[in-house]
Structure formats: structure tokens, C-alpha cells
Amino acid sequence: MHSVEPASPGDYPLLIGQLLANLPQFAEQEIVSEGQRFTYDTFARRIHRLAHLLTGMGVKPGMVVAVMDWDSHRYLEAYFAVPMMGAVLQTVNVRLAPAQIAFTLRQTGAQLLIHHADFAELVAGIMPALSPAPQFIAVEGYEAGLAVAPDEDFAFPLLDENSLATRFHTTGTSGDPKAVGFTHRQLVLHTMALAGTLANQPYGEGFRRGDVYMPMTPMFHVHAWGMPYLATMMGAKQVYPGRYEPARLLALQREEGVTFSHCVPTILRMLLDAIPPEAPPLPRWTMIIGGSALHEDLRRQALERGIVALGGYGMSETGPVVAVSRSEGARSDPALLCRAGYPVPLVWVRSDTDGPHELQFRAPWLTRDYNGDPAASRDLWREGWLHTQDVGAIGPDGAITIADRMKDMIKSGGEWVSSLALEALCLTHPALAEVAVIGMPDQRWGERPVLFAVPLDATVPPDIAEIRTLLQPAVEAGAISRYALPDRLIAIKSLPRTSVGKIDKKRLKAFLKDDQVIPKKR
Amino acid sequence: MHSVEPASPGDYPLLIGQLLANLPQFAEQEIVSEGQRFTYDTFARRIHRLAHLLTGMGVKPGMVVAVMDWDSHRYLEAYFAVPMMGAVLQTVNVRLAPAQIAFTLRQTGAQLLIHHADFAELVAGIMPALSPAPQFIAVEGYEAGLAVAPDEDFAFPLLDENSLATRFHTTGTSGDPKAVGFTHRQLVLHTMALAGTLANQPYGEGFRRGDVYMPMTPMFHVHAWGMPYLATMMGAKQVYPGRYEPARLLALQREEGVTFSHCVPTILRMLLDAIPPEAPPLPRWTMIIGGSALHEDLRRQALERGIVALGGYGMSETGPVVAVSRSEGARSDPALLCRAGYPVPLVWVRSDTDGPHELQFRAPWLTRDYNGDPAASRDLWREGWLHTQDVGAIGPDGAITIADRMKDMIKSGGEWVSSLALEALCLTHPALAEVAVIGMPDQRWGERPVLFAVPLDATVPPDIAEIRTLLQPAVEAGAISRYALPDRLIAIKSLPRTSVGKIDKKRLKAFLKDDQVIPKKR
């Protein structure tokens, strides 16, 4: 692994390959995937072989190489080799509908597709919708190709650090998926900021040398929060768990000594449900929770099992990490760990003072645009700040609290009501497993909150009067407006979810409009 | 403190002002200097006032503002305000001879000089040698100026991140001092790499949130190793000790709870000598040691006092930090903490395979040139690598060990002898306080090592036969060549030192040549 030749003395572009500069310090460290163990040294050699293989198949700088895979060593190799060649890595969201996947591949013009056998049928099915159809490599071809690729250093080119390195699509909860993109420079700076942030967390909340990493937000989703790049730069042991199955995740944690992961609340919930009640607490396992709000109940239940869960904040457009929680001051109030957290180094945040307090950011690693959508891009970057469409507050200590998505805020009786705040309160009812609050148009009040509730026991759903009684103290304390009290409760078996596990409020709204039965999704 | 307006959506130059993005998180944290306490909030407001003051005095982007001060809050303010205005901060080495100081000010064309009262006479003395003479502000004028400066935000300009931020001169052990320079981008990246490195060190060897910082390498010397920028970005409590006096440094450590410092071995030696033998161990105090080799004896003596000393590596040309030691594997061999250490993130190192193994680096924060000296600049950057003129080895674990400065290597009987290795061995003699080994030209052997030795008791210097006996086992073990055994010992009262406390081998060589008495310098 050689550093690229600079164009002039002292010139040093921020390229993904530069994250490998310290590799001689941990050449024997392990990467675990699909029951195999690779040293970092082998990993580095496989990066070179992959670059030879892709070049042999015609991949050139600027071309798009798409990947459809579960979390694996292959994905990690592609995270490095593809951008290092000057090509663009497209991480395909395999949970989208086939037509949407075809849409995203058409939109980027992907010329090569590396896919897992599990997606062979899906790939065959969408090929007719792609023109020209990309070449593709299945897992077997990937291994065979690496085996015959030259075992010599690939001459990785000296790139402009502003070259595009990755592309992927937002989940498209409102309309078609939108393509964001990140440059080499942005990913290196994101990695450096994460390093300074997570190593600086108190012991048990951070990620440091000696920790063992396993992703639990998929590698197709916003670079698995950038952690594979950080773990590689730091030389941490890495464990790639394939398709997420709670039993396998728990087994890998125990067997490989995993100490650091990240996931959405749904995955954490699944993990906790999969642990037998009589099982002893897990060894220390830190998890950054993002994607949706971390509720205090879930955090506490996780801690009882040995899992230190703490909130973070980011989105596809932000690379993703812009804030992480930490426990300073949280001894007296553990709920502080459930916030979106403190902005990480180099991140500026402001809250829109007009309107419902949208959070807006500046940082060196935010997507510059939505590819091919100049109107949405302009809207994203109004006044030079990235608009999150998240409503929130910046506390006196600088920490961010998210109130809600702007579109999920409910305006009733002229006051803004946060659906997230309401949901957190409703969830304290002992008979409820999951809830979602939706605003329903109302002639008199503008909107009225409606509570969708998944009871723990489907035969005895709570009634709306109980819920209003439960919320009354919060109204009296001024924590929520009296307009926030829902006057309708709809008991359902499960909540519809998006491809990345978030509650699909668009479908709940459509249900209210059409008054149709919600189809069961799990 | 507002982030600067970007030129285009998503554009985010790496500027020193961006290190202040997280400031709202620690607005009440303290900066201690000259018996005063400033909050970070006050510090930020003083930066704005300083920018107003300097602008009022005619400072414009591109101009050079020089500072001659002891370590103080003023210096910290200048570290930020001057580059943030687009001007260049010249940190003047106040230990140089007046003529050399005049030389460095002339060379940069400094147009404004901020100086401490202690340097008023010196400044008055060199003014005639400067043409046009710069304006100057003494400390009193500085405070008075800040007091009357507008208390409103200064509109810091959006700069090119490749703008020069700082300039200073190497110590000029060989010829006139040479000017190096660092850009905004370089200093931000150096800060980010330091953050990831030092927070990642095991507890007791690192620098994390909650640590208290006090410099003990002067702020005029390579940005005090970049630590003031890091401490400020992280929001650590900072303690600026003025002129270094061992008793005051010790008192500040105790009173302010200092946990992290950095210094050259000479300062550490002075500190240890100033601690009364009966004093209890200090509370945990971590020190990165650079500038010269950290000897195991000194490290152990420091540890007995509660000071965790560990080696780092860098030089004026490298910003400075490119490597830091850490204790992995050091439990069995504490000497590992005395090495130059492990390259920090983004740093590539190689060792010249022809010749005496000079260490060469690539990193995003190395000076691009010696200002006004294209020949030396070309020599510094041969083949696109920065040439350190340090001879060293890169171990199988990736850690760097420095053997010697190239010019201090001794070639005897056709073999290279490291003066540093010899010195470390000689120092194990119980009667010696300090030593230096110099190569003396020799017709038969090329060069022969000569030992300069400072005995603990001047009345009983050891003789050369004792030293040779002491070294014999190392020869037999193959650790040093038999040509390394010195055959001459010169006892002296003290070693001559350069302006930054390094042993001045040039003067020792001159002494050998002229056979003159070394003038006493302490």
C-alpha cells in the first residue's frame, strides 16, 4: 500500500486511500466476515486485486460501480478499492422495491453491479428495465476474479480530492429516492471528525483502539454511518455480520468480543427481544442510536442487558454524523443520552428562528446537491445552510434535541405539537408496545393528533380516555399543549415501516385519508 | 462567533475559525493566564476585539503580525484572530540573538509587532535594523486597545484554505534561521489528526475532554506543538504559564489541576530537579516529550514522581506532530515509550534504503517550502517526500525509532555509529549528569567518537577506561559497533545549548577543531 505520488511538493489531497497510511501498525489485526478471518494485510492486498479485477472488466475513473450485498468484507473492500480507482461506489438500498432499485441504478448509470446471490433473482428481474444493462459480478465471480487477479500493487491514481467517491439514494419517504453524493475529501474529514469525537467519549460510550466494531446499520445506508472507514483507519478488529438476524448478531457479539455498534431503535428492540430473559448481562456493548429518536425506556432496558445506548444525529444528506450524545451531566439525568447530541468538531448548527425551528447545518462533509434535481438542491441549501427538515432545539450546553420531522409536526389550535414528544409520552403506558401519532386535517383546529397504538396484548387495547389521563400531567406541567391531547386511538397489530426501518407515517396518513385497513408488514 | 459565509452550497474551507464551531458547548470553560481567568465566551469576544484593534492599526489580509511574548492568553488570541483576519501570524523565537530576531522580522516583512514588556528593550534595540520599522503594541497597549475596540462581531473574511496562517523560523543550527509556513488547511488537519491520536491513547497517556492543558514548549516554537488549537477545539481548560520557571510550573500544575503538557527533555529534567525529594507524587500529569530523545532513565525518574512521559516526533518543518508513542506492548518493555512513536493518521513514512536510513514523510500538514530559499526547499522535498535529516528505523509494528540526526552520525571504520545511542549508554554511568558524543575527523578511521561528559561531581570525573568497560557488553551483544567505543573523554561543567534547549553539537565540534574552552552557558 503506497501513498500516491503528489503533484507538487507538500501537496497532499484528502483521498480515501490515505486512510490506510497507518496500516503497517496493525497488519495482523482481524476482519471477520462470513466465518472467515482476514488480516488487514490480506485486506489491503485484496483491495489491490479488486482494483485489477474491476479494471480488467473495463471500470475507469468516473464510472459507477454498484453493490448489492449484505454487510461483508467484500463491501468493505469496495468501500476502498472503487473510490481509490477514481470510480464511484453506489451503495444500493436492497430493501427498496425492485422498481425503485432499477430507478436508482438507471439514475446513476451504474456500469457494473456486484451482487450477493440472494439478489440474483432480483437483479435478473430488473435487468430489462436497465438500458444499457450493467455488467454484473456475483459473489462467486468476485472471489474467482480476485483469485486470478495479479498479485501486484495497483497503481491507484492521484485524484482530485473533490472527486465523487460514493453515491446512494435517500429512502424517498416523499417521492422518488433522491441521489446524494460524497467526495473523497468529505469522507476523509468525516472520518477524522468521528475519530476525534468517539475516542473522546468517556470509557464505555466511545470507540477507541482496542474496541471491536460490528455495524448494525447496513453498509448500503449512508456508509454504515462512516464507521467502516473509521474502524479501518484506527486498525480496529471489524466484524461483518451479513444479513441482520438477531440471534446471529448476539452470537457474533459474544464470540468475537464486539464492543461497538450502531443501529436504529427498531434493531435494538429486536435484539433485546431476542435475548432470553434468564441470560446474564452482555459484556460492555456501546451502540450509537440514530435514524429515529432513542426513547428513555428503550435505553434503560438496553442498559439492564449491558448495552450502553446513546443517541446520535445525522441523515443521508449529512454523510451522516453531525452530532453524538455523551454523558457529561447525564448522571443526574440519563435522558440526556437520548438526545441527538453535541455537534462534532467543525460542525456549525443553527435553528431557524422564523417558523417551527428547523435545524440547519454547516460541516465539511454535507452532500452538495441532489443529483439531477437542481430545484431540490437549492431548497436544501437555502442561505448556504443545509436544511434538515428536522425541527429541534439547541440547548444552553450546545446539545441538540430533535422535536420532530417538519412534515410530522402537527399544528392544532394555532400551536405546533411534536408528534415525537407525544409518542414518547404515550409509550410510557404499560400496555403499549409501539405508537405513532399523525396529524389529521380538521376543519375547526387545523389538525388534530391521532394515536396509532400497537398493544402488547391485542385483546386488551387501552382506550383513549386512559391515554388522555396519562398525558394530563404533562399538559399541566406545560410540557405539551392542551391541543396535543389526542381524541382518537386506532389499535393496530404493527406499524408500517420504510425500507430502513423507520415508521412510515406517509402510509398512516394515507390510511386516515382512505380509511383503509393497514396491511400487516412484518 | 459565526461561521463564515460559504462561496457556494456545501463549500466549507478548512479555516482556523472553524475550530471554534463547538464553542457553545463549553462557553463557561476556563482559560487561565497571568493570574486571570477568562471563559471561552470571553476569549471568543476578545478575538473579535483583537481583530477590530488590528484592523484599526492597518492590518490587512496577507500582512504579517509578529508576536514576542511568553505563553499567555494574548498569544492564544493571536493564534486565532490574526489568521482568521487573513493575516499571517509570525511567532518570533525570543531566545534567538537580537541580530537573528531582526533577521527573521526583516525576512517576513512583519508590519506589526505585539510584544511583552520583557522584550521592550530588545525591540527598541533592533528597530534601527528594520526598514521600514513595523508598528508595535506592548502588552499595556494591547489591553487598552481591546478595551476600546468595538464590542461587536468582526466580519472575518471567507479565505482560501490554502492561505498562509503562520510563519516562524527553524532554530538555524546550520546557518541562518529558515522560514517555514503553514496554511489554514494544514493547521486544521494537524488539529484533527492530533485529536484522533491523543484521545485514542490509553487513559493516562492521552488528552481528552476533562483534561487540563498547560504548554511547556513555548508558543513561539512550532505552534506549541499544535496543542493550543486542539485544546481550544475540544474545549479543555487551558493554563498559560508565562515565562517557564520550574517552581511556577509545578505550582500551576497543582493549583489548576493540569493533567497534560509537552516539553523537551531539558525542561522535564529541570522540573524533576525542582521537586523537593520529600514531596509526595504529583497527581497524574502526562507529558509528550519531543525535540530530543527521551531517555529511559529520565522517563523512569519522571514516573516515580507521577509524571507519565512518552516520546513524540516532529520538527519545525512538520507542523510538528507526525508520531506519538503509546504503551501497547510497553508493559513488558517500558523503553517502547521512549521511541519517536507511531505515525498518526494520514501520515506516511519511509526510510531511505540507500545511505544511512533517513526518515521521510508525507502528511497533509508539512511545510511546502523554506520561504525565499528554493534550493533548500527542493532539497527538503526530493522525490515528493519531506526529508527529515533524521536517521531512524521503522519497526515491524510500524513504530519509529530515531537513531540520530544525519549530521551527528559518526562514520568510523566504515560503519555508521549513532551518537544518540552512544549517549544513552554512557548516561547509564552513575557519575554522569549529561553527555554528548561528537565525531572528530581522524585520518585512519574517518571519524572517531569523542565523549563530552558533565560529571555529577566536578571533582571526580570518570575516566575513559571506565566508560569503555561500561560499553563493552553492548559491543559484545552487537548493539553497537566496536568502532563506537570512544577513546577520548572531555569533562565539562555544562553542555552548550541552542535557543530551544537542544545540545549545540555545532559548538562542540567547533571546540574540538579549535581546541578552545567551551564557554559556560547556564
How would you sum up the major sheet of chain A? 6 strands, mixed
Share in helix of chain A: 25-40%
Give the tally of β-strands of chain A.
24
Quaternary: homodimer
Quickly count the helices of chain A: 14
Categorize the overall geometry of chain A.
globular
For this structure, the CATH topology of the largest domain in chain A is Rossmann fold
- Overall residue-averaged pLDDT value of chain A: 91
Which pair of chains forms the biggest interface, and how many residues does each contribute? A-B, 53 and 54 residues
Q: In angstroms, what is the radius of gyration of chain A?
A: 23 Å
End-to-end separation of chain A = 46 Å
Strand adjacency order, main sheet of chain A = 6-5-3-4-7-8
**What CATH architecture label of the largest domain in chain A applies?**
3-Layer(aba) Sandwich
Query: What is the assigned CATH homologous superfamily of the largest domain in chain A?
Result: ANL, N-terminal domain
**Would you identify the regions of chain A where 5 or more consecutive residues have pLDDT less than 50?**
516-522
What does this structure look like?
The first copy, chain A, has 522 residues and is an alpha/beta fold. Chain A folds into two domains: 388 residues, ANL, N-terminal domain (Rossmann fold, 3-Layer(aba) Sandwich); 106 residues, GMP Synthetase, Chain A, domain 3, CATH 3.30.300.30. Helix content of chain A is 29%, strand content 23%. Chain A has a six-stranded mixed β-sheet with strand order 6-5-3-4-7-8. In chain A, helix 4 links the parallel strand 5 and strand 6. The longest helix of chain A is centred in the N-terminal third of the chain and has 17 residues. Chain A is globular, with a radius of gyration of 23 Å. Chains A and B meet through helix 6, strand 15 and helix 11 of A and helix 6, strand 15 and helix 11 of B.
